[in-house]
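Worked example

This section walks through a single chain of length 92. The input is the sequence exactly as stored; nothing has been trimmed or padded.
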Amino acid sequence: MFSTTARPKAVFIMWLQLQAKLLTEDRLLKWGSKVEPQCMLCQNEDETRDHLWMQLSSDIGGNWQQYLTWALKNAKGKTIRAQIFRMGLLKD
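Given that input, the structure is written out below as tokens.
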């Protein structure tokens, strides 16, 4: 991905999120696992990547795609600002 001081686990989880590979309940159900589809955080909606993002980032606002577009724009380049952004984005 890019140079960072983040822990390898945080980088891997972010990579899974970016690739839509997190093991959310909706993905597990598609594979035939016997799990409850409801979100563990709110118990009101099915757990999907986008729903989890909305639950965890309600103070930021916007959906996952809007955040991803914003983050990719700010993480590009070799400027100090971009490097600091990348470190903060992936810091545990």
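What to look for: Residues 8-90 form one domain.
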